[in-house]
Amino acid sequence: MARKHSDGVAAATGPRGRGVAHNPPNRFERLWIEPLEAPTERVPTLYMRDTTRSIIARNNSPDVPFDASLNPYRGCEHGCVYCYARPTHEYLGFSAGLDFETRILVKVSAPELLRKELASANWQPQVLSLSGVTDPYQPIERRLELTRRCLRVLAEFRNPVTVVTKNELVARDLDILSDLARHQAAMVFVSITTLDDELCGAMEPRTSRPARRLEAVQRITAAGVPCGVLVAPVIPGLTDHEIPAILQAAATAGATQAGYTTLRLPGAVADIFETWLQSRSPARRNKVLARIRSLRGGRRSDSRFGVRMRGEGAFAEQISAIFSIACRRVGLNRARRSLSTTSFRRSGQQRLPL
User: CA-CA distances (angstroms) from residue 279 to 104, 222, 272?
Assistant: First the structure.
């Protein structure tokens, strides 16, 4: 069953406030129970305790600008339909579909584990990314404050951190971030995919709306914290035309840096996104999928280092050129900011309550 949006395109009837209406099979499971029909009413979020014994994840990808990251949550209630992290839930025995946004694992000991790792003589001060996989400011953070408490630990040690989020809630923690920024140890990137409220609501149902994210950029820069914007992901045939407008809005809000990635559809995400696209905007489906394949060597996904973040070919070059020209026009990326570990302290720091 489908309903019509005001613009005349159809959207699949599914659980309210969710990006995905079903659970595709888990590639690691031999058995899969297929319901007779997808849920149409509210699906509650279940939060589960994650008893991990380590909190800092290492990364050796040449495509990612950080070596270490911190993820207080697994799964993400934001429900972004295109999220490249969805397949990580399959390693936990869940589905990359509805489970990813309704079964959230919470690393309740994250602040304590972080303090232990930073206090170790084995820790070499370096920039931490918060987060590397799922959003550190998804809705439950408003109540649990795990990300905030981790930032307090980072402030104790003055260890530099880069925060990436699609949620205005990041502005709540400007007291801690501005303290870190005084030591050249904090930077925030707000991710903006589209300026279209309706599209955002359908594609990223529980994120902050675009105007609220831009307001957060204003507040962050006003507090003296360096702030950038990520146009991520650029969806060819659907949002790529918005690149100049997003960058203009970001610069007006005070952002000084900008970056982008093109849509990635690893594993189950390819079918999830295609199903969503068919229900949300069937008239654009063929164009969008054709553009995606043009970036990915005729495939829906390409995991090779060096091309997975931007794609390759004539259309990838066109997106790159549009982005670069738009940045120059609005004054973004004039000077690259870097974070410093020179103020890191291990002993004698003021221990703050968690």
Answer: 26, 41, 11
Report the pLDDT value the prediction gives residue 4, as an integer from 0 to 100: 35
CA dihedral 246, 250, 251, 256 (to 10 degrees): -120
Q: What is the model's pLDDT at position 350?
A: 59
Question: How confident is residue 56, by pLDDT bands cut at 50, 70 and 90?
Answer: very high
3-class DSSP assignment, residue 27: coil
Do 332 and 324 form a contact (C-beta atoms < 8 A)?
no
Look over the chain and give the mean of its residue pLDDT values, rounded to a whole number. 91
pLDDT band at 6 (very low <50, low <70, confident <90, very high): very low
HEC profile of 216-241:
HHHHHHHCCCCEEEEEEEECCCCCHH
The contacts of residue 88 (CB under 8 Å, 6+ apart) are 74, 133
d(CA 192, CA 246): 7
Q: Which of 326, 141, 126 is nearest to 229 (CA)?
A: 326
Q: What does the block give as tokens for 14?
A: 């599914």
DSSP 181-229: HTTT-EEEEEE-S-S-HHHHHHHSTTSPPHHHHHHHHHHHHHTT--EEE
Instruction: Dump pLDDT digits (tens) for 165-202.
Output: 999 999 999 999 999 999 999 999 999 999 999 999 99
Give CA–CA dist 205/11, Å, rounded. 13
